[in-house]
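User: Predict the structure for this protein chain, please.
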Amino acid sequence: MEHIVGIADMKVSNRTGDTIVTYSLGSCVGLAIYDPQAGVGGILHYILPNSAIDEIKAKSNPFMFADTGIPELFKQVYALGAEKSRIKVFVAGGAEIMEQEGIFNIGRQNYSALMQILTKNNVSIWKQAVGGYSNRTVKMEIASGKIYLKTSGLGEVQL
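Assistant: Here is the predicted structure, written as structure tokens:
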């Protein structure tokens, strides 16, 4: 079954027949994590770096922000049997879509927030496709942990 992760959304699974996919990662960041031993994975699609700008929205939808969504993603995969020491992390997005260089750079801020959280928690990135000016789509197969990346104007590639 395919589970679609919308904007400011997250899905996790431990069912071998499942695929999780998120579309149109521009300045948003898609964080995909997978534990190959437990067969557990999830994808978060967050849009903003810091929940302090709207704490009410953060409470109603923690997946909107890096600082509230990332911990929730890890908590939910841990609840399904994943362990921190085995998790592979893939990151996509953080592009400069419809932004002028140096003005807002939401993509860069989103990526920076992610890196601060991962560094603080001693989590390393396995692979990434961030920055630039293109939209990206990320798909994860739960059975194998395979990650597929599609970039605007290019075909899909397996990582």
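The longest strand covers residues 19-25.
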